[in-house]
Amino acid sequence: MNFDQRSNIDSEINALLGTIARAWRCYRMLNGLHSGSKAMPGALRNYPELLNEIWRVSYESMHLAIASLVDRHPQANSLNALIKKLRKYNPGDARIGALCRDAESQLADAAVSGIAKSEFWRNSAIAHNTLGGRDSGLYEEHKTSLEEVRGALEHLEVVLAVIVVNLDRVVNDTRHQAKVLEAHAIELVKRLSQNV
Fold this sequence. Notes:
Layout: H1 3-39, H2 42-46, H3 48-69, H4 79-89, H5 94-107, H6 113-126, H7 136-141, H8 146-166, H9 179-193
Helix pairs in contact: 1-3, 1-4, 1-8, 1-9, 3-6, 4-5, 5-8, 6-8
């Protein structure tokens, strides 16, 4: 890889790290809202529209971020595009070839249901706003738990970390920097649950 190619790969990795960090921030907010609302249901009675809108915007943003990480569009900044560039910039490099095959295999892991569900939500209800995506039954039929989302994020984080480590880069912590948002969301729900 020459200097410009390496710079291009580094730029792509930084953008992917930012996307994973954004998805973790949304997940942490949603988890905090969920935990807080279960412990203090008064907030839902006092401010149902506000909490519903915060939830919806965070939920959609989280699914958009996760789905963008596995986007197959040739112009997308995604793990698939990163793998393609690594192959293009390193033809004949057996180590990079094996790394790419391993990453593709992990991305194709059907056991990670949260990834497929995020792609579904992005394509059917968020980005394309299809008629079917507005069907109220769709939400029950394709419900996604926060645990499924967490599993998807952990899985994607590992795929990217393996690539980053093999390229002799430092692995960034995209998961724990957002933890404070969970505590803030719980505190928000607590304050909203108090009668004013």
